[in-house]
Structures are given as structure tokens and as C-alpha cells.
Amino acid sequence: MQERAAQTRRTILTAAAELFEARGYQGTRLQDVVAGRSVSKGALYFHFSSKEELAAAVIREQRDLLPKMAATLRPSHPQAIRLLIEMSQRIVEHLGGNPMTRASTRLACERDQIGPSAPVLFDPWIASIERLFDEAKAQGDMMQEIDSRVVAEFIVSALSGMQRRVRAGETELDLRRFNATMWRLILPGLLRPERRTDVMKYLDTVDAG
User: Fold this and answer.
1) For residues 93 and 101, what is the distance between their CA atoms, to the nearest angstrom?
2) How do residues 76-98 score in pLDDT, each as one tens digit?
3) Which domains does the chain have, with CATH numbers?
4) How far are the Cα atoms of 101, 129, 157, 168, 175 from residue 165, in angstroms, in the given order?
5) What is the pLDDT of residues 107-135, one digit of tens each?
6) CB neighbour list of residue 13: distance below 8 Å, 6 or more residues apart
């Protein structure tokens, strides 16, 4: 019974994510979430009492995306700056192909429409990247005077903002290309001079892959 309930909840969240991502919070109705799916309206209200609660749950699904990603990639990427580059590629994949991630980023930008229960999405993402930049400083790759928080804010804002523009049809620029170009522009200003050549070469191999 618990397994069935968990599957029903997952079905509802997935359907809601697709609608929230396509229509936004205001344009999505609860009846549309269950329409054409093997889920009753009663089952929807059993798991989520309101559209606000459902939107909050979609956002919450992705709050730990970057911390979990960092933990997964860490064993093969002990160098923090390389881990950051690899993570950004994975983030781009999620932003391009994962409806839950796309919906979360859109809803995070519509928190003022949702209500007080809507959690903050980007803060844990930014904090995860900030910690890795601080680690890159400790490892001798990044210049000490760089503000890790500001750079982390920039990266999350740039990638999530570009994803929204791509989905809105405002640009034909590929997210992967945008990500690679972003790193090529900012890395020279972040890295210690003696580390730039090595890290930029690594970026070339990631971009080529």
C-alpha cells in the first residue's frame, strides 16, 4: 500500500511539473494535473491539499539537486574547480531535459505568486557552489580575493536565466555552448595565474566531450 501511494504521489508530481513548467503557477489548474491520467482527484487531494502545496513540493524536489550532484561526482573529481565544471555540465543537462528541474526553476521565480509555503530553491544551489569555490581557494587554484558567494550567485543566475530564455523561444543559443562560453570568460579572472593553463585545458576536454 505504501509503495502504491508513493507511486501515485510521484505520478502527480511529474504531471504537475510538466504543467507548471509549460504554463507557470497561475496558468496551472489542479484538475488539469489529473486529467487524462490514472489518478483521481481524491488521490490528488489526499497527497496535496492545494495548488500551493503541490507547487512547494515540486520546488522541494530539486532543492538538494546540486549537493547530491557534488557528492556523486566528488570521488572522480577531487579537484574542486574541475568538479564545478563537471557539475555545471550536469546542471545544463537537467535544465534542458528534466521537467522537474525546469518546473522548479520557473516556480522559484514565481514564489511571490505561490504563497508563504513556497521554499527557496536557489539558495542551497548557490551555497553548494560557494563551498566548492572556497575549496578551490584552499587547493590553490582560485585567487583568495575572489568573493565565492558572488560568483556562485552569478553562475546559478546565468544558467537558470538562460534556460528560461531558451524555453521561451527568445534565443536559439544552446545551453551547453552557453555554459562552456561562460566558463571561458570567467575562469581567467578566477584562477591563480600558474593554474590557468591546466584548468583551461581541462575545460577544453569537457567541452569536446
Assistant:
1) 10
2) 999 999 999 999 999 988 888 88
3) 2-57 (1.10.10.60), 61-208 (1.10.357.10)
4) 15, 23, 12, 5, 10
5) 998 999 998 888 999 999 999 999 999 99
6) 54, 57, 58, 61, 100
